[in-house]
Amino acid sequence: MDLFLANFFDVPGLMRVYPYLLQGLLMTMQLALVALPLSLLTGLLVAVAYSFGSPLMRRVLIVLIDFLRAFPVLVLLIWIYYSLPFLGLTLGAFTAVVVAVVLNNTGYFGEIFRSGIESIPRGQYDAAAALGLRPLKTMVLIILPQALRNVFPPLASNALELVKTTSIASLVALPELIRTARIAQEQTYNPTPLVAVAVLFLVMLGPFSIGIAMLERRILLQQTRTRK
Amino acid sequence: MNPIIDNFVNPHILRAAWPDVFAGFLVTVQVALLIGVLGILAGLGLAIVRCTEIRALNILLAVYIGIFRTLPQLVVIIFLYFGLPYAGISLSPFATTVIALAAVLSAFAAEIFWAAIVALPHGQWEAARALGLRQHQILRLVILPQAVRLATPLLTNRTIAITKGTALGTAVALPEALGSAQSMTSILANPSPLTLAAALYLALFLPLVVLSRMIERHATSAQV
To answer: Could you tell me the pTM of the whole model?
Structure first.
């Protein structure tokens, strides 16, 4: 038991290596802060393009969304990072991770926003047209605010998944939390840095994951209550 | 030759890499299947245990579910593979990937099943009890069939998202499609094997994504 504690909760060792972890934390936050807004934007663009699109355009966008959702994000990252240089296009590790995560999440967010927009009844468009609003104004002022409220739970859930996904950056040698923990582990000779990183993730993301679970419970509850 | 064809779908390279990458793909399929089956079954089991309303057990379950819903999949994999040996437990890359991701999926599945069970109107329990059914019969015959149906759309999406994580096994040297393609890429000095791995992954998951879309559509149309 003493050995277990010394290995997994080696506080003096952790005090020596914590600057690494702090660096990793900053990198993880930077990745999330760049990739999340970008993905929300591209996802929204895809969904809006879908709702204004011709039937052919819609079909193309659905295929695009499904492709992006079917691609494991790590496969996308490795492919971007290791094969584009052969065409003379070398992306830095940070850029490659952002591109891979954004592409992947464009599919996820695109589908969420799309189903949100689809959930708004036809009458809302007709009413807006009757008030003399142009299509784009109708979308921004009438449809999107209601659509966003309808899909808030999956939106929040996917945002959390995106932040968790940034950890794949460690596999292209970007010093985010996991990578720095592995480097620190080589100095402490024990898994305490890994424990520390797991605790960090739990403290940072735990409240969100609990909140999202509660939101999802409420949706299922509404489904059983409104069904006749 | 056109540099795009030469580098991404070079026929000679593809032929040379095929046996390794395809062998890797078979590992991918096995791991993904195991994760899906074990994760969902364990999740269902945990949700049923939660119905027993034993306080201490429920707190433990809530902690387990909270931890594995929150940690990034890669953190769990790395921890099992590089941390547990210090506690005297060494797992193979295969076992590590399956256990880590099945644990993550079981936590999500338990939460979804539990949410579905709680969402069913209380009258269902009361009516079943009035018919003289025992507790386990109520669960098996009345509650679970409805809860599973309610949970299916959420569960399929989550299962696909997590089984896609099989590629993360490459971090602990699991010889799945991506890892094999990466080593063939360095051996042959040409990234075509990566394209091959990407295509194989797509071939596995694209039908599942399309299936989940159909399930979702069916669920929403059944509601109205």
So the answer is: 0.93
